[in-house]
Amino acid sequence: MPLLQGVLSHILSWTGLCQVLFVVWTLLGAVVVVWTAKLLVRHVWYTHRLSCFNKPHANSWLFGHLGQMQSTEEGLQHVDELVQTYKHSCSWFLGPFYHLVRLFHPDYVKPLLMAPASITVKDELIYGHLRPWLGQSLLLSNGEEWSRKRRLLTPAFHFDILRNYVAIFNTSTNTMHDKWRHHLAVGTTNLEMFDHITLMTLDSLLKCAFSYNSNCQQSTSEYVSAIVELSDLIIDRRQKILHHWDWIYWKTKQGKRFKKALSIVHRFTREVVQKRRALISQQRETETTAPQKKKDFVDIILLSRDEDGQGLTDEEIQAEANTFMFAGHDTTASAICWTLYNLARHDQYQEKCRQEVMELMEGRDRHEIEWEDLSNLPFTTMCIRESLRLHSPVQAVTRKYTQDMTLPGDCTVPKGAICLVSIYGTHHNPTVWTNPHEFHPLRFDPTNKEGLAAHAFIPFSSGPRNCIGQKFALAETSSRGGFDSAQVSSDPGGEPRSWAQLWGSSPSAPACPACRGEACGCRWSL
């Protein structure tokens, strides 16, 4: 005891306290030095391994291209410069933290996107910020976990399921058209299309995913507002390197707003899933023979089973439902907006689309697009595809690999490096596309596609980890594109009104929800 008392009294004395603090700070300093040394060694190693790729001018050997990657119109113009200069690929690094290879040619993109899912990993630079919202969903999972979820979710996107959604698309589009007719009636000639169409896609997705009528196009919805805020906050976080670390971000004003919006979204999804599972269990117990409603997204994945008879847990279903809402609303809204914008700028194509739709509707009592009609709109489909090429809703996808990846020209991407497949760059590469910045739908005429490289057009990525919802997105865009061309062409007096007239005498590009700039196209990386 006397010895223990002596030690304690020494430690608690000023001299002892200073010694303890000195030891603590020395240990912390040693940890920082070791961490920094490992970071710099890793940086030098990746710089050496990536020397087979051309590297644009960097700000410094340490900070590299930090601050040069922008989600703005200027950022896309910079991508155009990279494509013009380097033709197929270049290396890129953001400080000593992230080492990337940027690729924008089909020959270099193909080996990466077609790599087996077993060696493909989603990186934390782009996808890590989504994890608090989307959990371990299909979008963010890897390996066998990803394979199992892909098998369980595939039935939810079968054609027999998607055909039931077309009526929902029509209903939501009618609501939006009613709003536009009201604006026209009171003399409005200019609308911010992205805001209206985003609400319309959210309205549809809520009905398709949850059979939930939010009425969000007519009144405010707490859940919808929270989704929009989360989307904006994720883009904002991606641009601020210090916010990439959770222990910093959650203490910021933006981090606190994110948590508040996140609690609203998670509470809504959790309640829907729990109620739906309870209803399904009750129906099984009572063996009810009452007519069943058409199954929505949550119903289908609740009933899905793997080869062992196991389904997804409530937590996993919530993650997939949240991903469906996140990935489906903003990207589809962007695709529809840009398609309408391009038609507004090209009267001859707009008129041809309208005539195609009107001929299809001829003789019908109700002018509504049906599932079978989607394959009978060849020119409208060409316009949609060309718009997806020119203004891809997703500008890039990123991947990491668990082994070295060999590319043409004796180039090798080392294990662990981030591969940024530039969809925008590939779609605007002049060595692949003639006059890539021009809107020319006939590029996608079936008779003209023979010379097109297999991975020249990748709006939904490609390979094993392509977008599982691409058929849903195309069905929604096609039905909206055709329906809009047919029905929003008349003012209250019945006179034809073109999209250019509705937008204004000189249509401007839809404003980006992230930077609020025009024509920036800064959409998601999925």
Automatic annotation (TrEMBL):
Coiled coil: none annotated. It catalyses: testosterone + 3 reduced [NADPH--hemoprotein reductase] + 3 O2 = 17beta-estradiol + formate + 3 oxidized [NADPH--hemoprotein reductase] + 4 H2O + 4 H(+); androst-4-ene-3,17-dione + 3 reduced [NADPH--hemoprotein reductase] + 3 O2 = estrone + formate + 3 oxidized [NADPH--hemoprotein reductase] + 4 H2O + 4 H(+). Heme binds at residue 467. GO terms for cellular component: endoplasmic reticulum membrane. Its main location: endoplasmic reticulum. It is an enzyme of class 1 (oxidoreductase). Its cofactor is heme. InterPro entries: Cyt_P450, Cyt_P450_CS, Cyt_P450_E_grp-I, Cyt_P450_sf, Cytochrome_P450_Monoox. The chain crosses the membrane at residues 20-41. Belongs to the cytochrome P450 family. The lineage of its organism: Eukaryota, Metazoa, Chordata, Craniata, Vertebrata. It holds the Pfam family p450. One of its GO terms (molecular function) is aromatase activity. This is aromatase. Its EC number is 1.14.14.14. Keywords: Endoplasmic reticulum, Heme, Iron, Membrane, Metal-binding, Monooxygenase, Oxidoreductase, Transmembrane, Transmembrane helix.
